[in-house]
# Entry
Amino acid sequence: MTIKGDLLYASASDSGILKKGECGGAVTAILKNALESGIVDAVLAVKKGYDVFDASPVLITNPEDIADTAGSLHCGTLLIPKLIKKYLDGAEGMKIAVTMKGCDAKAMYELAKRGQVNLDNIYMVGLNCGGSVSPMVGRDMITEVFEIDPDTVVKEEIDKGQFIVETSDGQHKGISIDDLEDEGFGRRDNCQRCKTKIPRQCDLACGNWGVIGESAGKATFVEVCSDKGAELVTSAESNGALKTEQANEKGLMIRSKIEGAMFKLADKRREEQFAKMGSGKDRLDFIMKETSRCIKCYQCIENCPVCYCIECSSNEGHPVPKGQIPPPFTFHVNRYSQIADSCINCGQCQELCPMDIPNSLYMHAVQIEMEDMFGYEPGVNLDLPVIALAEEPAKCSK
Ligand code: FAD
Ligand code: SF4
Ligand code: SF4
Ligand code: SF4
# Structure
């Protein structure tokens, strides 16, 4: 029987899932069993859409459809918890198993503490995450640096620090992510700053780091982070869907070394990226200049997991007048003031901004300063944020 705290190598028993899975298909096997055994009513996973750059969320109720979601999509930058809030009533009426990266896990916690999702009904199957690549940047990067037509790419993977693509005519090409980032491509800026590499907030944290020896490439390292996670693994194993063994001691050490190295790199990237904005008045000038091209499309608000009001106060005519484009700086200040302490650095407000305004960069920088001041770190547990201590108006309901 699996218990909270177990560190396992796991792989699917079914040979089809084993082959299709990114690293042995443990996640797919666990999700399929959760649905078949009635632990959950539905699975929310991510599936290749039009091509490898198009990661589409999919809600599955037929266990036979789960195998189609196997594999990792590194251009899958979508944020899943807000979809659960918006379209699935916050999982109020159904039990759902969901795959998620670290930023998804943090978003889920921030939504849960604001009463927007029901965590009791959600099984969080976490994926370790070294970073994701914006789909548009991915296409440009493959055209310009790989010198390959992105429409011919049938598979992409990240292995040993390289971004590797495979084309329909069997070509393989890998380039170091460090080199890609030096040329302005590679992982999203927020991913470069991210330190949630093994999402232990989830019920399970699954990844390939630390899988060595014969199991390398054929199994996933599963950290069992909660009793719900133990239930998922125990059930899959006892129903013959999953094979597990204790993780190798040396593998454990390697995994922790990699995590430490990723933290150091993220600290370096934070320093470099924050320094570009200057400090004090210079930073304010930088933000005002960047936001001056805003077209008030509301994408940064719509997709932020921390913004959840039905009627956005920026749309009431005061303090931001209606119909003014670009909006006055108060539009942005209003947004910043509501989420400053709770920004989880998910990057949505930057990636989806049609005017390429580096919103997430400022928000993350402000959040880090507030964390230093008040000690509140968003997304790691269910502690209330600093601003949530103020009474929310009634309109901020789901
Ligand atoms: P599978 O059985 O293949 O199942 C994978 C599941 O992941 C599927 O259910 C699918 O729906 C879901 N999924 C695919 N793409 C996404 C996405 N973009 N967002 C949310 N869900 C998704 N592991 C590491 O140890 N180190 C890393 O640096 C690392 N980086 C990753 C970066 C990304 C963007 C992703 C998606 C995964 C990363 N992983 C990393 C995890 C690893 O690639 C495997 O997903 C994990 O080992 C599970 O393998 P599996 O064979 O059991 O999964
Ligand atoms: Fe992964 Fe962190 Fe980027 Fe999210 S923000 S995709 S968890 S690296
Ligand atoms: Fe302005 Fe960009 Fe936000 Fe749209 S997404 S409102 S353009 S900052
Ligand atoms: Fe994510 Fe931007 Fe909201 Fe921060 S402000 S949580 S980066 S969408």
In short: Confidence is low (pLDDT under 50) at residues 394-398.
